[in-house]
Amino acid sequence: MTVIKKEITPGKKPFKSLYVSVMLWFVGRALAAVSKIDKEVRDEIAALPEGCLIGMAVFPFGYPGFKAPAMFVQKTDGNRFRYIGTRAGSRKPDFLITFKSIEAAMLVFTFREKTVEAQAYARFTADGSLAVACTFVRILNKTEILLLPKIIAGRAVRRYDRQERKHRKRICLYARTLAGI
Amino acid sequence: MNIRPFYSGSKIISGRGALDTLSFELTGVNARKPLLIAAENERAAEKAVIRALKATVTVIGGICRCRNGEENPAKTIVRTFDSLGCDSLLAIGNADLINAVKTARAELSFGRPPAETDFTRPLAPRRAVAFVTVAVLTPEPGALPDELILDSGARIPSPAFYPDAVFIDPRVTGKSAAVSRRGETAAAALFSAVFALSDAQSHPAARACALAALQQISEAAGTRSLPEQTRLIADARFLSKTALTGSRFVPEIAAAPFLDGGKNPAETLKMLFECAFPALSFAKDDLIHSLMNLVPDESAIDGDEQTLRREFEAAVLRLTERLLPESGNKKPTRSGLSEAAEAVRRSALNKEQKDGCLRMLQNLMEAAE
Question: Does the CB of A59 have a partner CB in chain B at under 8 Å?
């Protein structure tokens, strides 16, 4: 028997991590922006508990000494979302989606797989109330429809709902997301 | 790209991309520094495993490469494990290699060789050593993972020999036969149903779903017709998923007062729609994908949204019909259904879900008349 007595520390995936980090940052800010411009989203947020903290992260998020992409948004007054950042601080999120690997996150964030499809294939774990999960997925779908061109959004959401004044909302959404207002 | 975890003694994660979740699953069994044990001629699989651990928390403590027909590999594994301070065993291979790793694990866990241990009595391990395997060939359906074969040829059966997790990824197994989707789905449904039933906090509606799922699986096992078997398994998966999701993740269900043995069908329906529907909407997506995977010829369902929706509604109707006879009423009463419809209107469902519920109730009312 050949024995190799040395530790093998697996390398990193810097480009994939960077891509997913940027996407999560963008989605977080877009969620905050869409809650300001869309009444339907505000109605959905109204059903969430006050101060509800929602996050999306990639494994090994939360392990000391390891950096992993993540984003958190919190419900604030007026039924809106506020983008908190990449860390939730000491507070435990009310609802957290954790992708089991960076590859799983890549499948979703490159729009090769829909959120519900990823859920069916056990690509992520959802920790929290199911009612919050359903609401959050609906808001996420709405945000993706407003953010992305139809051909790409059709791959990201299971059903593409037509939106009123979509282009106007889209311009507003991009401006608010990039400016952070 | 289709991973479908299920349980059969061990947790089995199969499908393309299953290896990507290796570190996540290892962490789940408290394994952060595994000792990698691979067959000498499986370098490609070894590389695939190391590559899959990239950007994760897992560090490989060391590697043991076994040759075919080697004597006493278990002793070398135990020595290396202790000297390198590893906390778990990660085996890549089949048959003899897995047998050697099982022997090593038993020795590490119980402090003495398995031949000197009485596995017929309950045993408390001296230390917990996680054991995960990556299959290089798709295991045969009849393979017994809970058996250890000693050098003398004697076989020791014990659940202590089950690996904590088994990975079957086509990136490693190559062209060997794929795991049957139908079998996988049935196993997953069975596990979810049993889990939901064993949960003390399960709501009666969730339990009823789990029982119905078990009945469907047993019916499927005795059915020869493939399309019928497919339908039964897809239904069972849907029902068990609803039961599991409902029992575990909907606090309203866990907190709801126990219904009086389901004697009041209106109440049962009301609770089902009010509490379990968020779970159903998740299960619906799962059902759709189950159907996609199960139907051998995808063109048979065209992947068409309307067809899938009809399938879903039919499944919900079947579920409702299954729940109602248990209450002693073969048909739901009109007043009961009106009450259920009112409950749906008052509930926090979105417009589309409410419309779906009301349409189904309307169908039930027509059937009742």
Answer: yes
Place of tokens 């409902």: B246
Sequence-ordered alpha helix ranges (H) in B57-203: 73-84, 95-110, 170-173, 181-198
For residue A49, list chain B residues with Cβ-Cβ distance below 8 A: none
Rounded distance between C-alpha atoms, residue B244 and residue B199, angstroms: 9
- Crossing angle of helices B226-249/B204-221, nearest 10°? 160
Nearest to A7 among B17, B61, B278 (CB): B61
Q: Is A100 on the interface with B (CB under 8 A)?
A: yes
Asked whether this complex has an ipTM greater than 0.85, the answer is no
CA dist., res. B164 & res. B52, Å (int): 18
Fold held by B4-173: Rossmann fold (3.40.50)
> Position B52: which residue type?
A
In chain A, whose CA is at the least distance from the CA of B81? A5
The tokens for A83 are: 């983008």
DSSP symbol at B19: G
**pLDDT tens readout for residues A55-76:** 999 988 888 878 889 999 999 9
Domains of chain A: 15-179 (3.30.1050.10)
Backbone phi, psi, residue A47, to 5°: -75, -15
Q: Please list every residue in chain A whose beta carbon sits closer than 8 Å to the beta carbon of residue B286.
A: 119-120
Reported as a single tens digit per residue, the pLDDT across A92-111 is 899 999 999 999 999 999 98
- Closest residue by Cα to residue B171 from B26, B56, B49: B49
Domain spans of chain B, in order of start? 4-173, 181-368
